[in-house]
Amino acid sequence: MPHRSQEWFGRTGKDGFIYRAWMKNQGFPHHLFEGRPVIGICNTWSEFTPCNAHFRDIAEAVKRGVWEAGGFPLEFPVMSLGECQIKPTAMLFRNLASMDVEESIRANSIDGVILLCGCDKTTPSLVMGACSVDLPTLVVSGGPMLAGRYRGKKIGTSDLWRFAEDFKTGQMSQAEFVAAEACMARSQGHCAVMGTASTMAAMVEALGIALPDNATIPAADSRRKVLAHMAGIRIVELVKEGVKLSDLLTRPAFENAIMINAALGGSTNFIIHLLAIAGRMGVKLDIDDFDRLSAKIPLLANLQPSGEHFVEDLFYAGGLPALIRELRGFLHNDARTVNGKTIGENCAGAECYDREVIASVDEPFKPESGIAVLKGNLCPNGAVLKPSAATPALMKHTGRAVVFENIDDYKTRVDDPDLDIDPSCIMVLKNVGPRGYPGMPEVGNMQLPAKILAQGVHDMIRISDGRMSGTGFGTVVLHVSPEAAIGGNLALVQNGDMITLDVDNRLLHLHVSDEELARRLAHFRPVDLGYERGYVNLYVRHVTQAHEGADLDFLRGGSGSVVKRDSH
């Protein structure tokens, strides 16, 4: 059967002339258009996305592999989402980038695609878009940066939150803050801890759509380019074998990813992104699956922010295959992966070289892992908490609500010496959900008030409809659904209301009667965000809630790879 690209390049007459002639201005000889598999290299390189700034080199390594295997590599750019640069939040544009990816893959003469992913949202956006086309696809991540060094100690992104507290309380000067800033990101690559970027890299390896060790080889390690080269070879083989994403992204693959993420102590953002990917593939997955499947999995990886080590240490300890081997008693070991082997076969020979980093199931690093999905009248559709990064003493607690109506209210009042708050209180932040911000920013792990920090307190229960950075930690309840902006019960919380968090019983309860909530709801008025045009207007009108993956409602599912009309 001829490759898809021959619908463009295999034509005779005027149509074939047009599709080929202008491509030849790049110096491509005619024989390259005569049936070679065309491999699209979807690149998120951008200097505004520093985590992906080395992707030109990664792309060249992929091309070498494609050429070696007899393919024809063609690189193309898509929207790049730099987590620390884009305002108001990169999450607002994840779905837009996925549209860019989907339409770029479908519209061009591509037989198979390599997705170059690194910074947080670049992985789910590219995978979501590719799923909606469903061609042979392989993910190559950019890899974690090397751990930073500051005053003789290793540091990473998770230390930012500690440094910020020290700066706020005067324990760290501006000069020291800037010095630490220069020390943290000392090499190419994404965050060095098990934040969202590394969680996403692990996710695609666990799903079986990336080669073994994709998740952990440091960006600065020459073996990252070797992996990219081998990916280039393998994608050509996948095209010839006709293996598409839908052949790999099955329900067992998604369940494996959830369990592996639990053992890693991966980011809570994993939930929203995996739900969105499942929605594109038509795989039934809901928020309760994350609790059910991870509840029995202990935390094996001693990595920041749940532990002390870094992702490069995980690689030296045996990488993700070594951790997966520890979990073989829980996993669907016969799930197919992109290299033609099952996930069980890929880890059969893996060894752990450092039990400080990768613990065994029998002697885990922590008994609690994964994601706790909470239900109750404050979150009828769910909320999430990461037990491995929380304070045990706060996992069952009743406290008085201190309410911030939006992020501006929080910033204005949080350090007011007259703020009526004590360590037993529960901080509540509204209107930072998918519609309310918009885009659901990573502000859920609110910095504590200065007067609380001055007491030596470093954790309190915090509740919001927003997200938290995968590098963050604390007893933080996130993704409250329905969100405040659409009249969820979170919108009705008032100062002084009592709230109970009971993680063991998966409960988040607002001690306000149904009758009183109904009375408050009658006075609720949605916030007018003022977005009357453009993409943000489209987003606000069509974004789904957190428990549904926060995708745009009209993007769920896919349209396949067929293009029904020619361009001329």
Please report the distance between the alpha carbons of the first and last residues. Answer: 25 Å
* CATH class type of the largest domain: Alpha Beta
- Oligomer state equals single chain
Annotated CATH homologous superfamily of the largest domain: Response regulator
Quote the average pLDDT: 96
Task: Give me the side-by-side strand order of the main sheet.
Answer: 12-11-10-9-13-14
Describe the structure.
The protein is an alpha/beta fold. It has 3 domains: 36-146 and 187-347, Rossmann fold (3-Layer(aba) Sandwich), CATH 3.40.50.2300; 150-186, no CATH class; 372-522, IlvD/EDD C-terminal domain-like (Glucose Oxidase, domain 1). Helices cover 34% and strands 11% of the residues. A 6-stranded mixed sheet has the order 12-11-10-9-13-14. The model has no long low-confidence stretch (mean pLDDT 96).
